[in-house]
Design brief:
The complex is a heterotrimer of chains A (343), B (334) and C (585). Chain A is of the alpha/beta class. Chain A folds into 2 domains: 222 residues, Rossmann fold, CATH 3.40.50.300; 84 residues, no CATH class. Chain A contains 12 helices and 12 strands. In chain A, the strands form 2 sheets. Chain A has an 8-stranded mixed β-sheet with strand order 6-7-8-3-9-10-12-11. A 4-stranded antiparallel β-sheet of chain A has the order 2-1-4-5, covered by helices on one side. In chain A, strand 4 and strand 5 form a beta hairpin. In chain A, helix 3 runs parallel beside helix 6 and helix 6 runs parallel beside helix 7. Chain A is globular, with a radius of gyration of 21 Å. Chain B has a domain of 230 residues: MetI-like fold (Orthogonal Bundle). Chain C is of the alpha+beta class and 585 residues long. Chain C is built from 17 helices and 21 strands. In chain C, helix 8 runs antiparallel to helix 11. The longest helix of chain C is centred in the last third of the chain and has 17 residues. Chain C is globular and about 70 Å long. The chains are: A alpha/beta (343), B mainly alpha (334), C alpha+beta (585).
């Protein structure tokens, strides 16, 4: 059975004066209704672009896209990459919705939040303006805004950052979409607010049985909500597996580096935070060989300087666990000194 | 909001009083003695003093100003005009011995000309400027954009006195579009819209060209800037069509600052479009004031036109601020 | 044109020429009104000016307006004959039955009104109206622009400050004295003027609108200017400043009481405030065929128009009544040294200045007198100045230097003023674009001869009012003047004597008092020929003193549309004989 969203070999690149920016390179992933996929990576790893392309929010004149992204809708599957722009537009806000990193700037400052939510609602529903506002109040209540009815006519600047993100979520969900793409939804928020928002997304997902793609650079966030994880580096997926696999049996040195760089309560005291040395690669003219090789501490472990001459394939290391590395799971275990089944 | 407006109104009145007072002081400093200026060939000291009295300049500047303010509300009598004193009813802006009429009457005749010129030009330049700006922004980098860039370049670099003369000589007169004797004739746009259009279309267009160019550039760059805003991406993510996004989301934000600029440009022109009025022979406030300054040194007219001109700007500032509060809710609550 | 006849009204009044006006003029234009002249149509005039300096007859003092409105709107006791050639400079009776009867050595002048003359409201013009009109000129606080001869001539006592004891009809002061000086006969039709001294040319003054009738009951004082009552064949229908002046037929005017006026057009419209470029284009493309340009063209357009053979019958280039001049401030501490004044004269680059303003052909030629040849018998060529072998039209800095060198010992103070870099000459100029250009030429020429000079710009239009003040600050200035009628009595006393506009005056110099005595003697001389000889002597003297460092005899061009008929020069005003104008059918 195919999943709700299936992304296959999706490449997105932007021609610039300096050369072709391969922001997303041959990316494939899928997510099903009720499922949460986290896409993880540093900024500039290309984790947002593929999703913007799925939403059709990329700049069509300045973007080259190949591959496909199939939405398995009740009335038949549709490839949102090759479908006409107008058709994709009619899916936006209805079948698939997106929320963004900065709730401060993502809402129009001149319209009341109710107005903005109602606008999204009335696009796909017949009803008066008053119906729209009532629906907006309902949604605001749903996302946990206190005395929502009184606040529908308030303007974005009258809300705090977390509240605005709730407004964004309310707006994204007003038409009961099947897919919610959340692009760094908590990055701009206070830590305390972050988990509230994540919790909200989780609750709503359960309630509406949505597919959720959570784009983040923060593995801590991933741990809270995701069912499965795609780790991206240099525009490519470097590791793709279930949440536990990623956290406890990660197969890619980059993922391992990421995990080492987050503070973990369970390893407090015995573990020193480690930053990955070096800079993320430029997406223009990637070197032959593994994109992570220049920063990889295990590069010498692979025979015949393979890492710098040949790009490893994304291969299934264990069942359902894909990694783009020449090292085998056993070698990883040895090198990291990790107990294979430490849980 | 009401409280805000009334507070601003109070400030505006105070500001206008201060402006008028400083106008009186400034013109007192200019080393031209109007009393001497109107002295006849056989001028004596006694005659100069008599003139000074007649012109109301024989009292302190403060007193002159106070009489002027009083005259605004109560009307005023001006002495030595012949058989009987000259009376100008409220609001009296003074009496021009050079034009033999109350300044308020002269201004009331000139103002509709300047007003209709300004409104005509305003409508033209807003519609041309904004639509060209939108077109250019939507067709960024394409022919329409380049053509509008050329228009902007020409419009902003050609001074009005050149475009105006070119319009008159090479269009209006060359193709006999308007009889030169009717050039600048005042027609009431409500009773004779076609007549008004005939004499006002070209001056309005002349004024509009320069402004439209600026507004095209402004609109284009604002739209392009706003288009990159996150909330435009949000609007797109909602599934709104590009048309709705442009109309409802982009333009609303992109044109808001234009309200300020347009308001002030409008107010500035209400003070008189000196060059355009001169070229087309329109007897508006601009021609009135420039003649009073450069040729006749007609102090009451200079004072009145300066004051009225600045009043337009000050009042328009208030209107713009209030309007802006309606447009941008962020301003409203602060 | 160097002199804007409309704006510089107080300075420039206009001449009448005598019978035998020396014709340096290159008169072209149409032949005198022919049989083709026909009634009807609208006659247009157009001008850049926004308003007339004055429509109120009391304030009217520019030759053009006297000719124009004297023909169409206002009748006066006498008038110049509305005829071509020298006949036009002769006086004829207009409102009066004759050109005036002098008695008592021309100290008393008497006029009787023609029967049947009326106002535009149909009422008869009376002696009381004439007396009232004449009295308004005394109200100097209300009317400041007209000629002031009435005040200096009428037999009314003078107060300590030099002003008349009579203050005009709006005040009670001095009324008795005025009633004695101007009297009406019992039938209210004959007026008598009693003068202080002999004024043999009072009859010329009687052609000025300021001497004409004003109906007391219609007098609105300052506002009368906007709608004066007509006595001529037309009356004012509309006068809107910066828009237009419209004249329509005055149906109360009767040809029987006015044999002279022809009144061909039905309407006369004067379009005001026309942009100069528009006006010139209108002329060049004949867009208003039944219209006349009142201003002349801008210099470059003027040359193009005059080079166009198809326009030959729509233009003339004539000698105008003006002398433009540069006058020296002869007071102590300024140019009170003949040698320095002379040095300025010889250093001047007249060629460049004239070229700047349109050249010898259109602007004017170097003059040798402040009396212009078209004043007739009062003009005689002088000796010296431009006839001096050292004079070069482009300037003779070497000769100027030798004169300055002599001044070093002869008058060290003036020499110091002229050459000391810390002091230097101050040249007064009105602050206009054209003046700024010409000032550069003046400065360059004088510096070449070793002068130190600085141009002082003052607001345009303030010259007359601040003459006294400017005289204490500056060393020389440029202006223009024209005679009021064909007698140097309206030139020499005004410019060099005790008249209105003497910038060069220095009462402390020994030559001043005898000069004034001679001027006064000439003014009262009843023998016209003798008087002319006296003026010759006086102008030679003034020129020898180099009170006026430079004079230019100006020229004037006029252009008009193809349907204008009857354009002929009216000598007294160097304007059209407005009476002859008609629209070709």
């Amino acid at each position: 059975m195919s999943k709700f969203l299936e992304v296959k070999n999706l490449s997105v690149s932007f021609p610039t004066e300096d050369g072709l920016v391969k922001a997303s390179n041959d990316v494939s992933y899928s997510v099903d209704l009720g499922e949460t996929l986290a896409i993880v990576g540093e900024s500039g790893s290309g984790k947002s672009v593929s999703n913007l392309a799925i939403m059709g929010l990329h700049n069509p004149t300045m973007t080259q896209i190949s591959g496909s992204a199939w939405l398995n809708l009740p009335d038949g599957p549709i490839d949102v990459i090759s479908a006409p722009a107008e058709k994709v537009r009619r899916l936006r806000g209805k079948v698939m919705s997106m929320i963004f990193q900065d709730p401060m700037s993502a809402l129009h400052p001149y319209y009341s939040v109710g107005n903005q939510i109602a606008e999204a609602w009335s696009l796909y529903n017949d009803g008066s303006k008053r119906d729209g506002m009532a629906r907006a109040a309902e949604m605001l209540d749903l996302v946990g805004i206190p005395s929502a009815k009184d606040r529908v006519k308030d303007f974005p600047h009258q809300f705090s950052g977390g509240m605005r993100q709730r407004v964004m979520i309310a707006m994204a969900l007003v038409n009961n979409p099947s897919l919610l793409i959340a692009d760094e939804p908590t990055t701009a928020l206070d830590v305390t607010v972050q988990s509230q928002i994540l919790k909200l997304i989780q609750e709503i997902q359960k309630e509406f049985n949505m597919a959720v793609i959570l784009i983040t650079h923060d593995l801590g966030v991933v741990a809270e909500v995701a069912d499965k994880v795609c780790v991206m580096y240099g525009g490519k997926i470097v590791e793709n597996a279930g949440i536990d696999e990623i956290f406890y049996r990660s197969q890619h040195p980059y993922t391992i580096g990421l995990l080492d760089s987050i503070p973990r309560v369970d390893k407090l005291g015995s573990h020193r935070l480690k930053a990955i040395p070096g800079q993320p690669p430029s997406l223009i003219g990637l070197p032959t060989g593994c994109a992570f090789a220049p920063r990889c501490e295990f590069v010498s472990q692979v025979a015949g300087s393979l890492c710098t001459t040949q790009n490893p394939d994304l291969s299934e290391k264990t069942t359902g666990h894909f990694s783009r590395c020449f090292l085998e799971p056993e070698q990883i275990v040895t090198l990291t000194g990790r107990k294979a089944s430490a849980k | 909001m009401l409280k805000y407006i009334s507070r601003r109104l109070l400030y505006t009145v105070i500001l206008l009083l201060l402006v008028s007072l400083s106008i009186f002081y400034i013109f007192d400093l200019i080393p031209v003695d109007p009393a001497r200026l109107v002295c006849s060939k056989s001028c004596t000291t006694a005659l100069v003093e008599a003139n000074r009295h007649r012109l109301g300049l024989d009292v302190s500047v403060l007193e002159q100003w106070w009489r002027f303010i009083q005259g605004l509300f109560q009307g005023r009598t001006y002495g030595e005009g012949g058989i009987k004193d000259i009376y100008c009813g409220a609001p009296s802006f003074g009496y021009s011995f050079n034009r033999h009429a109350c300044v308020s009457t002269i201004m009331a005749e000139a103002f509709p000309i300047t007003l209709s010129l300004t409104i005509g030009a305003f409508i033209m330049w807003l519609s041309i400027g904004i639509s060209l700006g939108i077109l250019a922004a939507r067709k960024k980098g394409k022919f329409a954009d380049r053509a509008s860039t050329a228009f902007v370049l020409i419009g902003t670099s050609l001074p009005t006195f050149i475009t105006g003369i070119m319009v008159v000589l090479f269009i209006v007169l060359k193709f006999h579009l308007v009889n030169p004797l009717e050039l600048g004739d005042w027609q009431n746009p409500f009773t004779n819209p076609l007549g008004w259009l005939r004499t006002f279309f070209f001056p309005c267009a002349t004024l509009a060209i320069a402004y439209a160019a600026t507004y095209t550039r402004f609109t284009r760059s604002n739209i392009l800037e706003i288009s990159t805003e996150d909330y435009i991406r949000t609007a797109r993510a909602k599934g709104l069509s590009e048309k709705v996004i442009l109309r409802k989301h982009t333009l609303r934000a992109a044109l808001a600052p234009i309200v300020t600029i347009a308001g002030l440009d409008f107010a500035g022109l209400l003070g008189g479009a000196i060059i355009t009025e001169g070229i087309f022979g329109l007897s508006g406030l601009g021609k009135l004031s420039i003649k009073a300054v450069t040729q006749t040194y007609d102090l009451p007219i200079i004072v009145a036109t300066t004051l009225v001109g600045s009043a337009f700007v000050v009042i328009m500032n208030l209107i713009v601020d209030v309007a802006y509060a309606y447009i941008d809710p962020r301003v409203r609550t602060t | 044109m160097s002199v804007n006849k409309l704006t510089s009204r107080r300075w420039v009044s206009i001449t009448a020429a005598t019978a035998l006006a020396v014709s340096v003029a290159m008169v072209s234009g149409a032949s005198p009104a022919s049989a083709a002249a026909a009634k009807g149509g609208t006659l247009y005039f157009y001008t850049n000016s926004e308003q007339f300096p004055a429509l109120d007859p009391t304030n009217m003092y520019t030759g053009r307006d006297i000719g124009l409105f004297g023909t169409y709107l206002f009748r006066t006791l006498t008038s110049y004959k509305m005829e071509a050639g020298s006949a036009g400079t002769e006086l004829t009776a207009d409102l009066a039955t004759n050109t005036g009867v002098p008695s008592n050595k021309a100290k008393t002048w008497k006029y009787t009104l023609r029967p049947g003359v009326t106002w535009e409201d149909g009422s008869a013009i009376t002696c009381a109206d004439l007396k009232y009109g004449f009295s308004r000129a005394f109200a100097l606080d209300v009317f400041n622009a007209g000629p002031t001869y009435a005040i200096s001539w009428l037999d009314i006592p003078t107060l300590a400050d030099g002003s008349s004891a009579y203050k005009g009809p709006y005040k009670k002061t001095g009324k008795a004295a005025y009633d004695k000086a101007v009297t009406c006969s019992k039938d209210n039709r004959t007026i008598t003027y009693n003068l202080k001294r002999s004024v043999p040319d009072f009859n010329y003054f009687a052609s000025y609108p300021t001497t004409g009738p004003i109906k007391a009951s219609a007098d609105t004082g300052d506002k009368y200017d906007l709608h004066p009552m007509a006595t001529g064949p037309y009356k004012i229908k509309k006068y809107a400043i910066n828009d237009e002046l419209t004249l329509v037929r005055n149906d109360k005017w009767k040809k029987s009481s006015d044999p002279m006026r022809k009144a061909y057009p039905d309407d006369i419209v004067i379009k005001l405030g026309m942009n100069e470029d528009v006006r010139d284009e209108v002329d060049m493309t004949d867009q208003i065929p039944n219209g006349i340009n009142m201003d002349g063209l801008q210099p470059l357009n003027n040359i193009a128009y005059f080079n166009d053979p198809t326009k030959a019958k729509q233009r003339w280039n004539i000698v105008d009544p003006f002398v433009t001049y540069l006058t020296a401030n002869n007071s102590a501490g300024h140019l009170d040294c003949l040698l320095v004044r002379k040095a300025v004269f010889f250093a001047y680059d007249n060629q460049s200045l004239i070229d700047l303003s349109g050249g010898l052909k259109y602007y004017g030629v170097m003059g040798d007198n402040i009396v212009k040849p078209n004043l007739g018998m009062d003009y005689a060529p002088t000796k010296g100045n431009i006839h001096d072998p050292n004079f070069k039209i482009g300037g003779n800095p070497e000769y100027a230097k030798t004169l300055l060198e002599q001044a070093k010992t002869a008058c060290p103070d003036a020499y110091d003023r002229a050459t000391n870099p810390a002091k230097g000459l101050k040249y007064y100029r009105a602050d206009t674009a054209t003046n700024k250009k010409s000032a550069v030429l003046v400065e360059a020429a004088l510096k070449k001869a070793g002068f130190v000079i600085e141009t002082v710009y003052k607001p345009a239009g303030t010259y007359n009012a601040n003459l006294v003040e400017y005289k204490s600050q500056t060393d020389f200035l440029a202006s223009g003047w024209a005679a009021d009628w064909a007698n140097a009595s309206t030139v020499i006393p005004e410019m060099w004597g005790n008249g209105c506009c003497n910038y060069t005056k220095n009462e402390k110099t020994p030559e001043y008092a005898p000069f004034i005595a001679k001027v006064n003697k000439a003014l009262s001389e009843l023998d016209r020929k003798k008087q002319a000889t006296m003026w010759h002597e006086l102008s030679q003297y003034g020129m020898d003193q180099y009170w006026y460092i430079r004079t230019v005899f100006g020229k004037d061009q006029a252009t008009w549309g193809s349907k204008i008929g009857g354009m002929t020069e009216w000598k007294p005003f160097s304007q059209a004989i407005y009476n002859d104008l008609y629209i070709k059918q």
